[in-house]
Amino acid sequence: MNRVIGDLVLGVRLAVGGSRKSWTRLALQGLGIGLGVAVLLFAASLPSVLDARQDRHNARNAVSEGTGPAPLLAESQSHPFRSEYVRGTYLRAMSPDAPVPQGIAKVPGDGEVFVSPALADLLATPAGTELLKPRFPQKVVGTISQAGLLNPRELLFFAGDARIQPNEHGNTVYGWGIAHEGGGMDPLLWLLSIVGIVVLLFPVLVFVGVATRLAAAQRDRRLAALRLVGASASRVRLIASGEALAGALAGLVVGFGLFYAVRPSLDRISISELSAFPSDVMPTTALTLTVVVAVPVLAVVTSLVAMRRTIIEPLGVVRDQKPVRRRVWWRLVPVVAGIALLVSQAGKIGETDGRPNQWPVVLGIVLLMLGIPVLLPWLVERVVFLMRGRTPALQLAVRRLQLDSGTAARVVGGVAVVLAGTVTLQMLLAGVEQEVRADEKKQANFNYLTINPGTDSDVNAIAAALKSSKGVTVVHRIDQAFGTLDSGGHIAINIASCEALAAQGPVPNCTDGKAYVVPYGDGQPTAQAGDVLTLRHSGEKWTVPSSLETTQATFPGLVLTPAAAKGLVAFNSQYIAKLDPSVPDAAEHARNALTVARPWQVFTYFVGQDDTAEAERVFGVIRRALLAGTLLTLLVAAASLLVVALEQVRERRRPLAVLAASGVPRGTLARSLLWQNALPLAISTVVSLATGIGLGVLVMRVFGAEVAYDWAGLGLITAIVVGLTFAVTALTLPSLRRATGALGLRTE
Amino acid sequence: MNTPGVYMMCIVAPMSIGHALLGLLEGGPRHGYDLKRAYDERFGQDRPLHYGQVYSTLSRLLKNGFVTDAGVEAGDGPERKRYAITDAGVTDVERWLSTPEKPEPYLQNTLYAKVVLALLSGRSAADVLDTQRSAHLDTMRELTRRKSDGDLADQLICDFALFHLEADLRWLELTAARIDQLAVEVNR
Amino acid sequence: MTLLRAEGLSKSFGKTQALDGAGISIRAGEVVAVMGPSGSGKSTLLHCIAGILPPDSGTVHYRDQDLTAMNDSTRSELRRTEFGFVFQFGQLVPELTCLENVALPLRLSGMKRKDAERAATDWLARLEVEDVAGQRPGETSGGQGQRVAVARALVTAPKVIFADEPTGALDSLNGERVMHLLTTAARETGAAVVLVTHEARVAAYSDREVVVRDGRSRDVEFAR
Ligand SMILES: Nc1ncnc2c1ncn2[C@@H]1O[C@H](COP(=O)(O)OP(=O)(O)OP(=O)(O)O)[C@@H](O)[C@H]1O
Ligand SMILES: [Mg+2]
């Protein structure tokens, strides 16, 4: 036992060693593993974040039934503002002991409002002051604290309004906080998050492995020397484990440091759904323990697996022998299995309702990702062996890689996974974006606001206010009713003038007196000419006109021009305000005009060119985050490549010096370094782009989504990789210069 | 006194005792007993000179005109006679030092005497070594040529000679490397 | 005909004066041994006259060109085309096979791979190491490796071969064999050899010797 500990300690001592080089190596390892640990800790905090969110979400639910007169009345309402939603509740306390919602000090009195910090910020902006403030004429009496918010950037308000009357659809509140039977996450979203987490976390694990092997060549030689001197295989393994442990422990320290350093700034993430309260970001104990145990274990295991050859044939490492050829078949297994699983699931999600079978998908993705670092060393070896090197520089590089492609391949293996993951995410993002943009395009021809006043609002006042609002050109009125078919199905009836219809979509040859039927998208039964409908609100019968045309207007159901709707009494009215596209924010002006009505009684819906800058911003932020992550991993990988390259220059000092002495131009030697860095990076980039795109296509097929390519993103990644290759080579040049001076000829 | 010592003496003495004594006289006139002591100290080690040898050599040198009488020191005994080196003697020492020894085995004593005397007399010991090396190398070149043209027997014979000559030169190099140290010791 | 002539070479490294007015002259086709005690400046002299190291003062003339006045790339070019080098050890590129190592100088001067390798094979055969052609230097013995290095130095048909302790890491038999092959090949191709060594048996392969001591050289020819 003492021997075991002694050997481990010897390994740690070798790792820390005291020399500057070993400290550099330890620092790089620590940084690499530390980055991974930090990401893992954030992932481990996800459950707590979601739990805390869910708790606060539940705390918001009103208990609407109780005994006696309700102490509180509440009407929830969202105010759309540009492309955001300001959610909130109008409250009226009916008794002094009215239950106070989480996050505020008291129930706001009439004309008072509590706003969330993000809403306060928004209202303080010039646009907010001009375009949103009119909808919040109340006096701000406080801000909503963390206890009332789902995330730090949530736009939320609680306003007091004495005009609220108790009504039959249950605006009574007896208390707050009740767990609702959650419908669960949208299966699609759920899968997407799993893909995201797998794609994000897997490279982290690979990376931890790679970081452990940073600058391992020198270490291998040292251990091989120990082995040649007579250390037994198991002792060498222990010593190697000790070295790996030192790196892993350094990584854990760095990782926790990074985690606590970054945590406080999480509430500044500008996309509200992604932001979180720092105090919520707390890794769960179980997961933290897993990280603390798994990272060192992973480090030791990777290091031992990679040391296999050194331990079996130590002489090969010392004498630079040609390594044994790698075998391919088992390396192909994960890739093939992964693709098979994904293909088998392609398109299935649309068919089955309910939650799809996600395990094959997740497993497929994991296998495919695992396949990259497993397959890459073999691939690099094969490619390099097929190359012969047309120029001396290329020949030098190729031969070097043939001798030891493993080190470089391992380094770029980690990068490849990250790149592949990024590419996949970029593609998914591009797909979502494409859909969003397509919607926007469809809506770009239109520019109107629909207004649904509540039943007891003053419709005329609303119409008048709308008409005088800035940027509103025409206000159409659409009357609505519901009918029951003989078959028992329901059908919506809209009564609108031809102009009103034209505002929503093309209705060819519309004249007053025509009647249209618009089929429901899901194949529900529609009315036919001559059908007799029972009107729901009045119970009267009404016969569908015989001249019924089928069309594709906006509203599904029956669409009648006023003359065709004779005898039909509408139950409800809706306004369509056509907006002047040349007036900016006309929709916001119109919404502000609606304050003549009680704010919780009017619902608006904007159809038209949305504020695309907002979409741009959201996608921009996500893309930048992805890019930053990619850049970070690429940088660490580049640092590892640099270590490898520097070590090789140092190792080959004499031959390099002799070559330079014999008149080999330094340029040739520099180019050979460039090739030596570029080849593995190029191969891994190609592989990861291919895998990323392939995975993206497969996953999107699984979701039944349209495939989109983010060429700009791919180009950017490629450019970064090329740039890093040059940077690494450039950084190696000073040491090459030193080695090739006449001093390099002197024996050490 | 052991037998090999006597044997060596016989080979070496006629060739170098005279020059050694001459070299020692270069530092200034001395009487015979002094010369013997100086010689034994520097070159005698386990085979000191007989008085007889000293005086017979000195009388030979006197006869050849390389040394002269430099008067008698106050005291008694014939050994009180002092000798001094002549110009002819100095020239003879010079010639002797600049002439390489014929490369052959067992010439350390002569070479050593040459080096020490060169140092004692303020001449360049390195020159002595370089001259000797040059001569050795010439012989070795000849042997090397013979070796590459000859058959196996030739090769073996040549190699034998080559290795011995090399040993001489090795010793020379070592001496050269220690020359500074030697200079300090010799001139103490 | 004097091919290479250096005069008044001085070179110091910090406080160490490695060369102090050394000179040497090499005639075409002759084999010159540079001898002298360790640390006397032999290697430094070799590096200076081969244009690897610029001297602090003094001149080096190769034919009628002044090496000390050339820029780095011109000197590189000269070394590549006119000179060959053999060192004590570790000069072969470990990842290239022996054949490729020998072919490398030819390929660097733009020769086609096939032609270069054919010429390299010839030279390996002349130095009796054709059977290690496909092996890496790490897989050969020291003596074989040194012969490969000699082949690489000779393959470009240089005018001067600079050898710094070429047999330093070999036993006598191998050392002599390498020297024999080196000098024979040099004589056949008419190349001059500057041979730094402290071994007399190795120096015996030379035509004459130059002794370096304390950074000063004694070149008998030069003095004349
Ligand atoms: N790059 C250098 N930096 C510092 N000192 C140096 C350098 N190169 C040579 N020297 C010094 O210059 C002197 C001559 O060195 P040089 O290598 O030329 O000797 P050498 O004759 O080749 O010795 P050896 O037979 O041991 O190889 C030595 O004292 C050495 O320490
Ligand atoms: Mg040297």
From TrEMBL, chain A:
Membrane topology reported for the UniProt record: Multi-pass membrane protein
Segments traversing the membrane: 26-46, 188-215, 236-261, 281-307, 328-347, 359-380, 408-429, 625-646, 678-699, 711-733
Location in or out of the cell: Cell membrane
Keyword Protein transport: no
GO cellular component, one term: plasma membrane
Location of the ABC3 transporter permease C-terminal domain: 195-310, 631-738
Pfam families given in the database record: FtsX (PF02687)
Source species, domain of life: Bacteria
Keyword line: Cell membrane, Membrane, Transmembrane, Transmembrane helix
Protein name: ABC transporter permease
UniProtKB/TrEMBL annotation, chain C:
GO cellular component: plasma membrane
InterPro entries linked to this entry: AAA+_ATPase, ABC_transporter-like_ATP-bd, ABC_transpr_LolD-like, MacB-like_ATP-bd, P-loop_NTPase
One protein family per Pfam: ABC_tran
Residues in ABC transporter domain copies: 4-223
Recorded GO MF terms: ATP binding; ATP hydrolysis activity; transmembrane transporter activity
Keywords attached to this entry: ATP-binding, Nucleotide-binding, Transport
Sequence intervals crossing the membrane: none
Domain of life: Bacteria
Annotated protein name in UniProt: ABC transporter ATP-binding protein
Source organism per UniProt: Lentzea alba
